[in-house]
Amino acid sequence: MSSSAAALPEPPSADEAKKRRLALIGGSLGNLVEWYDWFVYASFAIYFADSFFPGDNPTTQLMNTAGIFAVGFLMRPVGGWILGRAADRHGRKSALTLTVTMMSVAALLIAVAPTYGQAGYFGALVLLLARLLQGMSIGGEYAASATYLTEASARDRRGLGSSFQYVSMTCGQLLGLGILITLQHTLSTAQLTAWGWRVPFLLGALFAVVVFWLRRRLQETDAFKEQAADGEAPDDGTRGTLKALWEHRRQAGLVMALTLGGTVAYYTYTTYLTKYLVGSAGMAKTTATLVSFTALTLFAVLQPFAGMLSDRIGRRPLLITFAVGCTVGTYPIMTALGSASSYWSALGLSLLALVIVTGYTSINAAVKAELFPTRVRALGVALPYAIANALFGGTAEYVALWFKNSGRETMFFWYVSGCALVSLVTYVLMPDTRNAALSRAEAGTDADADAGRRPAPAPADAAR
């Protein structure tokens, strides 16, 4: 029997299986609403851009709203640090509850923000403050949900369990697009531009209230409870601190490098796709929205299958496949999308791109969580990931529009490919994390099952 096979846990009891299903559902639904509120800004920007920024150039107006979208990413490292620390010291559940509260307040601020005609640039300031608050919330949400979903999953199903992070993220975006499509077919363009764009933000605030109640009922993960039961006080000065993270700086660097290509590609083919089809391919807004909606629906369905595949063959093969496909495929796919003349051609190309991106999105949460020990896992996932997103993911749309406005749009395609190439080198050199032990209990199981053989890889101090 192989070492990896020997390390597989016993089949869970009926109660344990039910507990894991509830954790998966609860964590995923909360994540869905969080990312709905985050992405709906990008989805409706084409309708409210001129409400906050006057002028006759639509591209310039979109660049201003995209700039505020990018600024929200600058707060993600702050949120990742504060809320990641809270998740490591006080539990994943408390951090998840706090993030959704912050997101609800931010969505409400955007819903009631005054336009330029009503209050000048004060409305843009409210928009900016709301996005900063959303950035803090998402900075903590990603880490808390990635850690929670990974720790709450059975060891041999972590790829599957963590894949639901991007299922819920994508479903949040689909919910926003679905509301957009509904409003496009029930309201006129003038009504959408005047007040209709506020509706999804009001709904987002209400959704978040429901999720707050749901997350209050979640159970804490066994890995965190195990650590807390060992008598380590929350104020012992080690859990969730930058000092503790510095001890795992190599893993933090890996998180940044492996995130770089994936986050740029993801935001290119999701939040920016609709604008690209409208502004570069000349497609109608309603058609472009429908292309995005259909492609993202199928993309969400793919995530669990890719996650299950990683549980069988490892994480690195999927990551490498993504990076190779993105490095060599971005230019031809984006070029073809720029001249797509029909719904079906645009959909086929979008799906091709998202299938490639699935190699990253389906498992990146598990990979990052598997790199760190329990006492610094949430912060270790949160802070380096948030920094990479602030520098590259959040600016992807702005960079794309900047190249377009300067008449060198194809340079953006090479930019995406270059980012993927950096991540490709990282994937080739890094170890596979599939068999990592996330708790001392799992590390002990490895020691018992593999006596006399080399144990499965584990985080540096998983047994402490």
Task: Write a short abstract of this structure.
The protein has helices at residues 3-6, 14-52, 58-74, 76-90, 92-112, 116-119, 122-152, 158-186, 189-194, 199-215, 222-229, 242-246, 249-269, 273-279, 285-313, 316-338, 343-361, 364-369, 377-393, 396-405, 410-429, 440-449. With 464 residues, the chain is mainly α.
Notes on the protein architecture:
- This protein has 464 residues and is mainly alpha-helical.
- It is 77% helix and 0% strand.
- It is built from 22 helices and no strands.
- It has helices spanning 3-6, 14-52, 58-74, 76-90, 92-112, 116-119, 122-152, 158-186, 189-194, 199-215, 222-229, 242-246, 249-269, 273-279, 285-313, 316-338, 343-361, 364-369, 377-393, 396-405, 410-429, 440-449.
- It is globular and about 65 Å long.
- The two termini are 28 Å apart.
List the helices and strands and how they pair.
Layout: H1 3-6, H2 14-52, H3 58-74, H4 76-90, H5 92-112, H6 116-119, H7 122-152, H8 158-186, H9 189-194, H10 199-215, H11 222-229, H12 242-246, H13 249-269, H14 273-279, H15 285-313, H16 316-338, H17 343-361, H18 364-369, H19 377-393, H20 396-405, H21 410-429, H22 440-449
The share of residues in helices is over 70%
Q: What string, H for helix and E for strand, traces the elements in order?
A: HHHHHHHHHHHHHHHHHHHHHH
- Residue windows where pLDDT falls under 50 for at least 5 positions: 1-8, 460-464
The radius of gyration computed from the alpha-carbon positions, rounded to a whole number of angstroms, is 22 Å
**Alpha-beta classification:** mainly alpha
The assembly state of the depicted protein chains is single chain
Our count of helices gives 22
Proportion of β residues?
under 5%
What's the main sheet like? Answer: none
**DSSP E strands, number:** 0
Through-space gap between termini: 28 Å
Rounded mean pLDDT score: 84
The rough form would be described as globular
